[in-house]
Amino acid sequence: MVQVSSSSSSSASVSSPVSSPVSSSASASASPVRLLVRAVLSAGACAALTALFAGTAAAGVGAPPPVRDEDRAGDHLTVTVRDAGDGRDGTYELSCHPAHGSHPDARGACAALDRDTRWGRDTFAPVPDGTVCTLQYGGPATARVTGIWAGRPVDALYTRGNGCEIARWKRLVPLLPDLG
Fold this sequence. Notes:
The chain is of the alpha+beta class. 29% of the residues lie in helices and 19% in strands. β3 (76-82) and β4 form a beta hairpin. The longest helix is centred in the first third of the chain and has 28 residues, at 32-59. The N and C termini lie far apart (65 Å). Mean pLDDT is 75; it is low at 1-27 and 45-64.
């Protein structure tokens, strides 16, 4: 049995069922034998914990399952674009696998989505809070994407208010219109 405890002085003690050849009067000072016993027990505990957690990670416990073909059959999105200009505004329906709908480039939009879909990552995730972005303005265009993608609900808003948002928009062209 290995038990590690810490106190405010950050010292650790290890209790072991192994008896030490060091007398109890010498136990106050750390003898080489006692240090060796502690090191062996600590190494054994670390190896056991490493094996336990490595097996858990390999099994994928806690991770979302990969996208399966049966999840893809229901891929259907509604894309609403505003203030994009040049006749690009509107609401478009898009279904993938196979690609069809009222979207002007259904095949290209589905290909862009497939290219950007990664296991364990939200394809439509917003720019994370605290991200440092360039102070550039990409125009007043906005887009909202709703529906189901890879078996998961989607409700995402896109703007072009800074460099990160512009890059996020461009990543999904031609699902979203190419605004340059």
